[in-house]
Design the sequence.
């Protein structure tokens, strides 16, 4: 528009003003129309209502809590056995013992043991166990998504776990321990069997527990008269928070396992978790008629690779910059979409529909998020081992140094209700969108703070230990009596609590993200990919053996702290676009696979019931 009309255009000015007014009205009408548009897959919720009304969670189905019992028992059996593997493998039988138990008169200073194979073999077997149990989820995921469905897969591999525990108990009997090499062979075999079973149910329990909730986005008026949005995503978040609480309740079994091994022997310590796990088949059978069960969709893994390969091939260029630019282009997936072809020009190898391409794109986007997690699990691994060594150099006052690690699950159990009932609703009430991407980034940052805390503590421990050789846990006097730092052992609780908080922000959210962002047909596979990151962290731990020594702990912890903070910033910067598209991503691919264009998608979670 001109600042002032000249004589020739004076008559045109009113026309231009009318046109501008009409455009403004049309624009306002379009905006109003957008605000009144209905959110897909909701019960009449508009964009305006979604943006202005307070969001709350729905009632959680009791079936979900019954499935949590499965994970509770599995974690009880896992931590109730693996947490005593170190002494069982490393230390020899105590004097006068045939079971690994310490005689009553020696319990103040004695250490339980059995095989006497030393620290190196113990570390190798324990690290292999951690690696293998987080690789095998792919087996259960593929079987569930393509052949058996999640419920049947969980039932089958529950039996596998139970058999593994029976072998483990047999390996620790007095008759077996009389032949340490044979007992070690049985132990390794039991670990393999249990890892296959535990990994295979791990990728299926998490999706199945959330599938029990089938509610939709809707409005509801509370008794106070306030109209709120009942949010499925917040409900799923709450389900996973309490699911993770069940996991950590199970992990506190390590407290009893240590005392059972010391006082009653290893076969008793392994028998108790076996008996606990025997309740799992009973629960699954009793509830078989009330579970929401997602049936298998057939083999889709090969089709997924074909879609990805077709799109990558279309962007191939000799110039690496151009190739990367093509991979990141918005139109990257178009070449695999049937709608990109007209008439009979569509390649014969395209055997999928339009929605499937969107599902593959969504799966790849979800999996990229998990690629940042190995650094998180490396920070977590420090509380499993190295911080126990840190505690051993401090003033114990009768507290076993390996007991402190149980502060991690205890802190999580305490914090989850506070976060679910207090912090998260408070943030929503004040309009703060604490989305999954933000929560994961904060989790990385808190894990980094835990490592910084540990590094500072280690520096003080070096300075205050009577032995200034960088190995406070080995400091003894001339009579081999321990000489400890005056720092109280409970000071080391800080990293355990901070890592627990980081798990709530990052790890629980990763479970939620894997479920909500993965298409129905690929949920178990995406969940397995998220679990794989723990295995990758275990593999990295093998490469860091040379620096996992006490005199280098300060710099090891500090390095992890700095890297975790950098990863937090890089993670959010990389996935900030996904953060903005949260609602849209949750709506993609929520239906059963449409057989033809235009078929209305079914509600996510809708499935056969037994």
Sequence:
């Amino acid at each position: 528009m001109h600042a002032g009309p000249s004589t020739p255009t004076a008559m045109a000015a009113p026309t231009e003003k009318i046109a501008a007014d009409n455009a403004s009205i049309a624009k306002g009408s379009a905006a109003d129309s957008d605000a009144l548009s209905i959110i897909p897959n909701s019960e009449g919720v508009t964009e305006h209502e979604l943006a202005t009304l307070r969001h709350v969670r729905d009632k959680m189905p009791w079936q979900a809590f019954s499935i949590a019992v499965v994970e509770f028992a599995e974690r009880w059996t896992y931590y109730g056995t693996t947490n005593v593997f170190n002494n069982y493998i490393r230390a020899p039988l105590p004097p006068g013992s045939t079971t690994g138990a310490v005689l009553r008169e020696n319990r103040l200073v004695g250490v339980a043991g059995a095989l006497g194979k030393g620290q190196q073999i113990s570390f190798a077997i324990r690290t292999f166990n951690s690696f293998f149990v987080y690789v095998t989820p792919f087996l259960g995921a593929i079987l569930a998504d393509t052949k058996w469905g999640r419920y049947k897969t969980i039932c089958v591999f529950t039996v596998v776990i139970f058999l593994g525990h029976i072998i483990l108990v047999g390996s620790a009997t007095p008759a077996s321990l009389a032949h340490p090499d044979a007992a070690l062979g049985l132990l390794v075999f039991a670990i393999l069997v249990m890892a296959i079973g535990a990994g295979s149910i791990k990728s299926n329990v998490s999706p199945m527990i959330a599938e029990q909730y089938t509610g939709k986005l809707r409005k509801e008026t509370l008794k106070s008269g306030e109209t709120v949005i009942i949010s499925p995503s917040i409900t799923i978040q709450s389900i996973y928070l309490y699911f993770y609480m069940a996991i950590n309740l199970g992990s506190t079994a390590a407290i009893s396992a240590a005392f059972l091994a010391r006082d009653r022997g290893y076969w008793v310590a392994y028998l108790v978790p076996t008996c606990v796990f025997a309740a799992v088949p009973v629960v699954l059978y009793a509830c078989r008629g009330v579970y929401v069960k997602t049936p298998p969709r057939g083999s889709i893994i090969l089709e997924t690779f074909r879609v990805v390969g077709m799109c990558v091939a279309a962007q191939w260029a000799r110039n690496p910059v151009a190739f990367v630019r093509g991979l990141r282009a918005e139109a990257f997936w178009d070449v695999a979409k049937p709608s990109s072809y007209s008439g009979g020009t569509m390649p014969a190898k395209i055997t999928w529909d339009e929605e499937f391409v969107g599902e593959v794109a969504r799966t790849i986007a979800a999996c990229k998020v998990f690629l940042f997690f190995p650094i998180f699990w490396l920070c977590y691994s420090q509380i499993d081992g190295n911080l126990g060594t840190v505690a051993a150099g401090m003033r114990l006052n009768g507290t076993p140094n390996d007991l402190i690690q149980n502060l991690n699950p205890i802190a999580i159990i305490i914090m989850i209700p506070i976060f679910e009932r207090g912090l998260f609703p408070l943030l929503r009430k004040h309009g703060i969108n604490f989305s999954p991407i933000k929560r994961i980034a904060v989790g990385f940052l808190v894990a980094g703070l835990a490592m910084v805390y540990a590094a500072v503590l280690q520096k003080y421990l070096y300075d205050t230990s009577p032995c200034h050789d960088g190995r406070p846990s080995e400091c003894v006097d001339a009579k081999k009596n321990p000489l400890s730092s005056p720092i109280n052992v409970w000071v080391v609780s800080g990293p355990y609590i901070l890592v627990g908080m980081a798990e709530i922000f990052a790890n629980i959210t990763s479970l939620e993200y894997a479920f909500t962002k993965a298409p129905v047909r690929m949920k178990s596979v995406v969940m397995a990919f998220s679990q794989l990151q723990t295995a990758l962290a275990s593999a990295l731990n093998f490469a860091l053996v040379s620096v996992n020594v006490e005199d280098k702990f300060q710099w090891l912890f500090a390095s992890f702290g700095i890297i975790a903070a950098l990863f937090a910033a890089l993670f959010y910067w990389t996935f900030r676009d996904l953060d903005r598209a949260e609602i849209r991503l949750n709506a993609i691919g929520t239906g059963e696979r449409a057989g033809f264009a235009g078929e209305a998608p079914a509600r996510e979670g809708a499935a056969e019931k037994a």
